[in-house]
Design a protein that fits this description.
With 385 residues, the chain is an alpha/beta fold. The chain has helices spanning 5-12, 16-30, 35-47, 61-69, 88-92, 97-100, 129-141, 172-176, 190-198, 210-221, 227-242, 249-265, 290-322, 329-359, 365-382, and strands at 51-54, 72-73, 77-81, 118-122, 143-146, 149-152, 157-162, 180-183, 208-209. The protein has a five-stranded parallel β-sheet with strand order 3-4-7-1-8.
Length: 385
C-alpha cells in the first residue's frame, strides 16, 4: 500500500516511537475488545518473544496477527495455515536436487519460514510431529537443521493461532515456547458489536521499517528495571506457587524483556509495578488458571493501596462527623477527643502499611501522601479544641 498526500508526508516526519503509538491506536480502532492482545502483540515484537492466540473461529485471530505483521516494511514475513496434511516442503522449502547429488539432504528455504523475520502460523497445533519438532527448534534456539549444516534463523517473533488448546503430550514443549498466551472470544458488548458492524476499512495504515523496529528494540532494552519490580516478581511467584500455579524459571526470566517492552509502550523510561499486571498473560498454563493469576497479582500490587484508600475514606468520614453542629460544648469536646483517638489509631495502621511496603521494596509515595492528608485532618480537629 503506497501512501500519498498529506498523510504520507506526515508519516515521513514521525519518529519510530510516534509511529508505534499510531499503529497501536489504529489497531485499537479496528480490533475491539482486544486492548491487551494488541499490547501483547506489540510487546512481543519489541522484545522478540512469541505469542499464541486461542479462540473459536471468527474472532479475528488471523486478521489481527496478519494486520500487525504487514505493518513492518522491509522484513521477510511468512504465514501459513497448518493442517495434518501440511508437508515440510510447504513450511521449510523443497529438497534441493542439486544438494542430493552430493548426498546432502538440504532444503531450498527461500521465502519459507527459516528465512522469515516475522511469521504467523494459523492452527499451529494441527501439523504433524516432524514439522512441529522443527518449529520448536526455530522458536527456542532460533536454529534450523538443514542437511549437514545448522543455520541460525533471523526469526524475531512468531505469532501462533489455534481454535483449541493442545491435548497431546508431544505438543507441550511447543505450547510452552509461547511466552504470551491470550484466549479471545466474540465481542461481548452490544455497542462495540455495532461499532464493528458499522466500521469502515481504515484509509491509512502506519508502518515501521525493519530499521525502525530494530532501533525501538534497542530502546526497549535500555528501559530500567528497579529493584522493587524484581521483588514484586518474586512475590508473585511465591504466591502462585502456593496455589500450585508453577511457571518455569525460564518463563520468569524471559518476562523481564516483555515488561520492558510494555513499559516502553506506555511511554515510560523504567518498569513500574503497574506493568506487572501484564504477567497475567504469561504465568498461566491452563485458561482456568488465568483468573487466579490475575487476582493474585492484583492483590499483591494493589493490596496495601486499597487498604490505605479505605483508611483515608474512614478518616474523611471522621472529619465530617467531628465538624457537624453539637448541642453543647461538652459533647463537642468529648466527640473531638474520641475522633482524635480514632485518627491516631488510623495513623498507626498507616505506619504499619508503610513498614510492610518498605520491607517488600514497594514504592511508598502514595502511602506517605495519604498519611500527610490524615495528619492534616488531625491538626484541623485539634484546632477546634
Amino acid at each position: 500500500m503506497f501512501l500519498r498526500g498529506p498523510f504520507a508526508n506526515f508519516i515521513q516526519t514521525m519518529t519510530g516511537q510516534e509511529k508505534l503509538k499510531k499503529i497501536r491506536e489504529e489497531l485499537r480502532q479496528t480490533f475491539l475488545e482486544r486492548l491487551d492482545l494488541i499490547d501483547g502483540a506489540l510487546a512481543a515484537l519489541l522484545s522478540s518473544h512469541h505469542l499464541l492466540i486461542i479462540g473459536p473461529p471468527g474472532t479475528a485471530k488471523s486478521m489481527l496477527a496478519d494486520e500487525l505483521c504487514r505493518r513492518i516494511e522491509g522484513g521477510k514475513y511468512f504465514q501459513w495455515l497448518l493442517t495434518r496434511f501440511t508437508t515440510p516442503e510447504e513450511i521449510f522449502g523443497a529438497v534441493s536436487l542439486k544438494a542430493l547429488e552430493q548426498d546432502d539432504y538440504r532444503r531450498v528455504t527461500s521465502d519459507k519460514l527459516p528465512e522469515a523475520q516475522i511469521a504467523f502460523l494459523d492452527e499451529i497445533f494441527k501439523a504433524n510431529s516432524s514439522i512441529l519438532n522443527s518449529i520448536l527448534t526455530l522458536l527456542n534456539e532460533r536454529l534450523f537443521h538443514n542437511g549437514k549444516t545448522v543455520a541460525r534463523v533471523p526469526l524475531l517473533t512468531l505469532f501462533g493461532a489455534s481454535n483449541e488448546l493442545p491435548e497431546e503430550e508431544e505438543l507441550t514443549a511447543l505450547y510452552d515456547r509461547f511466552l504470551l498466551r491470550f484466549v479471545v472470544g466474540y465481542i461481548a458488548e452490544d455497542f462495540r458489536f455495532l461499532r464493528m458492524l458499522e466500521s469502515q476499512k481504515q484509509p491509512e495504515r502506519t508502518t515501521l521499517s525493519m530499521a525502525e523496529l530494530e532501533d525501538l528494540q534497542n530502546q526497549v532494552r535500555a528501559v530500567l528495571i528497579p529493584s522493587h519490580v524484581y521483588r514484586g516478581i518474586a512475590d508473585i511467584r511465591r504466591e502462585l506457587n502456593k496455589k500450585n500455579i508453577v511457571a518455569s524459571d525460564r518463563r520468569y526470566r524471559q518476562s523481564l524483556t516483555l515488561l520492558q517492552a510494555h513499559a516502553f509502550l506506555e511511554g515510560e523510561k523504567e518498569v513500574a509495578e503497574k506493568d506487572l499486571f501484564f504477567l497475567e498473560h504469561v504465568l498461566w498454563r491452563d485458561p482456568a488458571e488465568h483468573e487466579q493469576v490475575r487476582t493474585t497479582i492484583r492483590d499483591l500490587i494493589l493490596g496495601y493501596e486499597e487498604e490505605i484508600s479505605e483508611l483515608l475514606y474512614e478518616s474523611r468520614e471522621i472529619r465530617d462527623s467531628a465538624t457537624r453542629p453539637w448541642a453543647t460544648s461538652d459533647e463537642k469536646a468529648r466527640a473531638l477527643i474520641e475522633f482524635h483517638t480514632k485518627l491516631r489509631n488510623i495513623l498507626a495502621k498507616v505506619d504499619q502499611i508503610v513498614d510492610k511496603a518498605k520491607r517488600l521494596g514497594r514504592p511508598v509515595e502514595r502511602v506517605n501522601t495519604v498519611r500527610s492528608e490524615i495528619e492534616q485532618l488531625q491538626r484541623q480537629m485539634l484546632e477546634q479544641f
